[in-house]
Amino acid sequence: MSKSKTEFYDTDTSGVPKHLRRNDWATKDSFWYGRVEGNDLGTPLTILFFSTDKIGGGPPLHVHKYDEVFIIRSGRAQFTVGDEKFIAEKGDVVFGPANIPHKFENLGPGMLETTDLHMSDHFEQVNLE
């Protein structure tokens, strides 16, 4: 998970990191998985890296108090955003508005990798399932 500013590789004179190494945020060695919270970077943006090779794998239905943008880096996913259901695949971008329930799951075959941009300086999620 998120680390303290003093553990980051390189900072400017204000103590805000300007360069993060993979081992500063990654929680798994073999694929992209982990997060960087905006409050550690001095910015109102938190980045989550999600990966799963499990068919059906993904977060439960949930909401955030802030907007979220998903970038599908590889694979295919079934998204639910509010009442809408659709398939997103490599290269697609999906918008999850604040306070609207959403989830996604890996359709396979293979790895699903997303980069999720949370418009907040910290990660906060309310699971509904």
Structural description of this entry:
This protein has 129 residues and is mainly beta. It has one domain (34-127): Jelly Rolls (Sandwich). The protein has two helices and twelve strands, in the order ββαβαβββββββββ. A five-stranded antiparallel beta sheet has the order 3-4-11-6-9. A three-stranded antiparallel beta sheet has the order 8-7-10, with no helix packed on it. A hairpin with a 5-residue loop joins strand 1 (10-11) and strand 2. The two termini are 23 Å apart. The model is unreliable at 1-6 (pLDDT under 50).
- CATH class reads Mainly Beta
The low-confidence runs, each spanning 5 or more residues with pLDDT under 50, are 1-6
- Average the pLDDT over all residues and give the rounded result: 86
What's the N-to-C terminus distance?
Answer: 23 Å
CATH superfamily: Jelly Rolls
Q: What is the name of the CATH topology?
A: Jelly Rolls
- SS-based class: mainly beta
